[in-house]
TrEMBL record:
It comes from Nocardioides cavernae. Keywords: Hydrolase. Pfam families: DLH (PF01738). GO terms for molecular function: hydrolase activity. This is Dienelactone hydrolase family protein. It comes from the Bacteria. The keyword Disulfide bond does not apply. Residues 29-151 form the Dienelactone hydrolase domain.
């Protein structure tokens, strides 16, 4: 169980759907009222920093879902936890790590979660935000019409180190075509990074090439990586709140 105070006021449920042909269940934590937003945690897990960011969205008037996909729950970020979780993430059938031109398998599960949330709360659709390891997951959720406000924070997968991976968007060619079409129809994508963050590689340039002016690019001066959590920037948080406010209300 998480520390007593980390998820105080949040309600736990579960969501089940197919992942790579296997029925898969993950816990989901929920809080708030208003338009729906799915926040997908980064490595090493659903940390206290991610939860605090979720609480900012709740305070701004959103129904927030925090799916718990892997790793510890409710703890402060630590490199020790990253080292412990990383090997398990690397062998998970649900997650891509190195493959190019492939959508992460858990994207279908996340799309299903967003559809259910949209069916319940209504409105034009839901927001989705991924970060670091899961940065591209929000982009993959845009393939489903229920996601109308995708936010990509410091996307870092597939891992840089081998040729061609620094520019890859963690999307299959078919999903990239859908993202391009939806962007042409008016669905914008917000991308946020620290300008000096090497883990993002050339992915923002790839997004701009894919969807043109529909890609809203925020690059923050200074050093850092986790734009809305461990290296929280008010510029980043304000950009997210403005983006959701324009598209979900």
């Amino acid at each position: 169980m998480p520390p007593v105070d980390a998820l105080d006021g949040w309600t736990r449920s579960e969501h089940t759907d197919d992942v790579a042909g296997v029925r898969t269940t993950h816990p989901v934590w929920r809080r708030g009222t208003g338009p729906g937003v799915v926040v997908i945690h980064e490595l090493p897990g659903l940390s206290a920093g991610v939860i605090r960011f979720g609480e900012e969205l709740v305070a701004a008037g959103y129904t927030v879902l925090l799916p718990h996909l892997f790793g510890p729950l409710g703890r402060e970020f630590s490199n020790v936890d990253v080292a412990r979780v990383f090997p398990r993430v690397c062998i998970s059938r649900e997650l891509t790590k190195l493959a190019r031109g492939v959508t992460t398998p858990v994207a279908g599960w996340l799309r299903s979660l967003a559809r259910d949330l949209h069916a319940e709360v209504g409105g034009p659709g839901v927001g989705a935000l991924g970060m670091c390891f899961t940065g591209g997951f929000a982009l993959a959720m845009m393939v489903d019409d229920s996601t109308v406000a995708p936010v990509v924070c410091q996307p870092s997968v597939p891992f840089i180190g081998l040729p061609g991976r620094a520019a890859d968007l963690n999307l299959s060619p078919a999903d990239a075509d859908v993202v391009r079409r939806r962007a042409a129809d008016g669905c914008s994508v917000l991308g946020i990074r620290y300008a000096s963050d090497p883990l993002v590689g050339a992915r923002f340039d790839s997004l701009a090439s894919l969807i043109g002016d529909a890609f809203l690019r925020v690059e923050i001066e200074g050093s850092g990586h986790a734009t809305v959590t461990e290296h929280r920037s008010q510029v980043a948080v304000d950009a997210v709140l403005e983006f959701f406010g324009e598209r979900l209300h």
